[in-house]
Target: Transporter
Amino acid sequence: MTNDSREQWTSKFGFILASIGSAVGLGSIWRFPFVTGENGGGSFVLIYLLCVLFLGLPVLLSEIVLGRSTQRNPVGALRLQGPGTFWFLGGYIGILATGIILAFYSTVGGWTLFYTWQSILGNLGGLSIGEAETRFTAFISDPVIPVLWQALFMILTMGICLFGLQNGIERTNKFLMPMLGILLSILVIRSITLPGAMEGVRFILYPDWSDVSFTTIFEALGMAFFSLSVGAGTMITYGSYLSKKESIPSAVGNVVVFSTLVSLAAGLAIFPAVFSLGYEPSAGPPLVFITLTAVFAQMPAGGLFAVLFFFLLSMAALTSSISLLEVPLRYFEDEHNLSRQKGTILIGGLIFLLGIASTLSFSTWSHVKGIAGLPIFESMDFVASNVLLPLGGLVIIIFSAWKWGMHQVLEALRGEDGNRLAGEGFWGFVARWITPVLILAVFVFQVLSN
Ligand code: PFF
Model:
């Protein structure tokens, strides 16, 4: 397939918004707050920020550079730059990871749509925390309803991808991301102005080192990869649509800064409200669906804020799920000449089937155990987020910094004028030594301790 026929982002702005759209999702708004809550708040946030900077950022840069310079999918990109070697197998890690992530992601995506609808109908008003929990449990343990909402989530994802890059993905992000920024700002202001909210602000901003263990560091690494969408080839794919004229460092800077800000803002929208109304911050995965529902029920004009919040969460999930589906779509389009229409239906359909298993692990299949004795949903999350993403990230960083060569990466980063970039030497050192060694160390520790 010639690269001339490939679509490109209409502008660097479109690329930045789509990449932020991919990064900001359930990971930032649903997962980040509860993982932070379970891991002691501020100290976890600090370790997370370090992981973003020294592990996430170098991999993100490498992915975008690799994508843009080859204009290929992850497998094709690694094959082109490492001909005759086995590095391309790393691309398959990404394709597998995106498929598995989208499968369990669509379970929660369906929940967010259901909660948006329920809040629009006003069905969540006046619930105590106990009632909110009963509602949530009754919903997820139903064998049919959550699958239908998941199907709707997948249909929306597939529908957008079907329209292609500019008309589907870019347009959706250009519309939804600014809206998301506005909604989130409203929610943060509401939350931090509640009486007693400062305790929640303290919780995420002040480190408490007594809660930090090695597991915390591993969680932070997984979180950094998941929330920046790195390690799965998403950014190779999105980077492959970026014109060679655009400068990468400023785009990457925007993506990292904005995605991290959104995660922190999500924490600031949630914890002050949770503390203000006297709930536990460490409620785990149901934090958003149970605790927040009870929080909204007690807040002045809470019904309206509930609609805004769950709508925001659904849209954030959607802009990430389209990036997840785009990876296998692009791969099959590039490497196997599968048309976008056929690919969307076939691959989207297959992922949906896998996703049904993840949804049913809360009801009919709750007794089925997968990896390490975990239920299906948690097994998929564990394999993809804690194993495949760090592994994919490791392959990409070692390939870029050692095999393809740091000078190639830097040259691509410098852009057309070829001028040296500030901090080139430092980041080159980080990418060659710090990032791979740290990922490997955390990874080996995790495997040994299991
Ligand atoms: N970054 C997304 C989130 O935080 O919800 C999830 C994600 C998207 C992970 C794309 C990995 C990926 F390749």
Notes: The chain is about 75% helix and 0% strand. The mean pLDDT is 92.
